[in-house]
Design a protein that fits this description.
ten-stranded mixed β-sheet; globular; 3-hydroxy-3-methylglutaryl-coenzyme A Reductase, Chain A, domain 2; Alpha-Beta Plaits; alpha+beta; 10 strands; 3 domains
């Protein structure tokens, strides 16, 4: 170990990032870790143990790497999924530190599979980026909106944006105005990639044409009308990423046998909790715990965990259906992909492999949509199980036994 470099890091003479070009990546990781250990007085024995390919992750996934954090990985299922892209029984990988979560999803999977599986359909698939421009006044704002709305100008922007990507397709540009601020929401098909980086780069080059032909200034490449990693009504209404719905009809005898409650109690819990309670709280999520299951699958499968925020813009419904109840969950903004980002990690590749969605699909986009369908079905399993536990008054008992 280079003691002189270590001391320079500790004194601030050399930044954490400054040693990457001076040492090999592996030695740089080790030296940073030693410096942090001495600076904080903390032994980092476990952080130093991992099977990640350091060369790979430091190129695109992490800066100033010192090691890795381990999260327990559990499995739920098998879960029967009847989608357009996903068809069959799947073992669901869930990375979490919340005791009782995997057990709950596993029970929900058992219920759904016993009823023939969850039907799943994707209704929209597009990723967005929305730059904000400043016009001189509302007249200038209207002029920009009119210019973007011209079919010939849209085609020019589309051609320019698509020069930056092999798989991205610009679908539409939707304008929004507030005074002299103009937000242009670019929407793309991004194939098997979740697509945030793709659409950011593509939109950035298209902006040059807008600026060269309109009397406006670019304020920011992202103006929060996208909306990325924040609760937003536009995502709940218009969608972002995959807009997907999953449903199943559960027979009354299975509710009694597996959930230890009744159809009537589950329907009332969902109505008063997920619908009335959420409305009274002005929540954008009308569900029990969609973010819980989405986040656990995101972490396991190399998705951007912060997109659990958009995933939580979901609505769960339950209503009578013959000899049972109809249950559904709709996720209007599920941002997932099977290439790029965190999906490159070795453990994440294994989890994606469990679901048969690792890498790019044929044709492109089929693997990411298959993953979205499986996640939606797993989310439905989580909703059914938690609503059942609340109806049977088993929630506190389960957490006392498994999650304390």
């Amino acid at each position: 170990m280079d003691r002189k470099l270590l001391e320079k890091i500790k004194t601030g003479e050399l930044g954490f990032h400054g040693i990457d070009g001076m040492l090999g990546i592996g030695k740089a990781v080790e030296l940073r870790r030693s410096a942090v250990s001495e600076m904080t007085g903390t032994k980092l024995d476990h952080i130093s143990k991992f099977s990640l390919d350091v060369e790979t992750v430091t190129k695109r996934n992490i800066e100033n790497m010192i090691g890795a954090v381990q999260i327990p990985l559990g499995v739920a299922g098998p879960l029967r999924v009847n989608g357009e892209y996903a068809g069959g029984n799947y073992c669901i990988p869930l990375a979490t530190t919340e005791g009782a979560l995997v057990a709950s999803v596993d029970r929900g999977c058992s219920v759904i599979t016993a009823c023939g599986g969850a039907n799943v359909r994707i209704f929209r698939d597009e990723m967005t980026r929305a730059p904000v421009f400043r016009a001189k006044d509302v007249i200038g704002a209207k002029s920009l909106v009119d210019w973007v709305s011209e079919p010939a100008n849209f085609l020019r922007l589309k051609e320019k944006a698509e020069e930056t990507t092999n798989f991205g397709t610009l679908l539409r540009i939707e304008p929004f105005v507030a005074g002299k601020s103009v937000f242009l929401r670019f929407s793309y098909d991004t194939g098997d990639a979740m697509g945030m980086n793709m659409v950011t780069i593509a939109t950035d080059v298209a902006i040059d044409i807008i600026l060269s032909e309109n009397d406006v200034e670019l304020v920011a490449l992202s103006g929060n009308m996208c909306t990325d990693k924040k609760p937003a009504g536009i995502n709940a209404v218009n969608g972002r990423g995959k807009s997907v719905t999953s449903d199943v009809i559960i027979k009354k005898e299975i509710i009694v046998e597996k959930l230890k409650t009744t159809a009537e109690k589950m329907i009332e819990v969902n109505y008063r909790k997920n619908l009335i309670g959420s409305a009274r709280a002005a929540s954008l999520g009308f569900n029990a715990h969609v973010a819980n299951v989405a986040a656990a699958m995101f972490i396991a499968c190399g998705q951007d965990a912060a997109h659990a925020v958009e995933a939580s813009n979901a609505m769960t419904t339950m209503e009578p259906a013959g000899n049972g109840i109809y249950c559904s969950v709709t996720l209007p903004s599920l941002a997932v992909g099977t290439v790029g980002g965190g999906t490159r990690g070795a453990t994440q590749q294994e989890c994606l492999g469990m679901l048969g969605v690792a890498g790019s699909g044929n044709p492109p986009g089929t693997n990411s949509r298959k993953l979205a369908e499986i996640i939606a079905a797993a989310v439905l399993a989580g909703e059914i199980s938690l609503i059942g536990a609340l109806a049977a008054r088993h929630l506190a008992k389960a957490h006392a036994e498994l999650g304390r």
